[in-house]
Amino acid sequence: MNCKICELHKIQPQAIIQSTEFWIIRNTSSALLPGYCILEPRRHVTTWSDLTSKEIIEMGTLIQEIESRLKFEHHAEKVYVVTISEVVSHLHLHLIPRATGMQLRGLHLIEKAITSN
Ligand SMILES: [Zn+2]
């Protein structure tokens, strides 16, 4: 199997912000959006249906924790959570902070964030 995300987990451990039993949170190093990170299951999973109930539960907790951290550390007024997984099929969630006062928002911000990553 040739999967970019599975490879990154092995070859780029410095980008990993947090690692839990089922998930990895990876920093994007986005200059445009500090704090923008990606939540990825440890296992190679390509659909929501493939996740176990334990993985789903932990994912929800992690989204809440990441949102709180982005609000506190990066003054995020809003945190977008987006899953596309079209270019890389390994399921992953983009957590994109929109800082207070930022003019760019919604789909425009999401597109800019994801294409700059
Ligand atoms: Zn993978």
TrEMBL record:
Keyword Lipid metabolism: no
Signal peptide: none
MF-aspect GO terms: hydrolase activity
InterPro entries, per the entry: HIT-like (IPR011146), HIT-like_sf (IPR036265)
Source domain of life: Bacteria
Name by which UniProt lists this protein: Diadenosine tetraphosphate hydrolase
Location of the HIT domain: 4-105
Phylogenetic lineage: Bacteria, Bacillati, Bacillota, Bacilli, Bacillales
Residue positions of motif Histidine triad motif: 90-94
Keyword match Transmembrane helix: no
Keywords from the UniProt entry: Hydrolase
Organism expressing this protein natively: Paenibacillus rigui
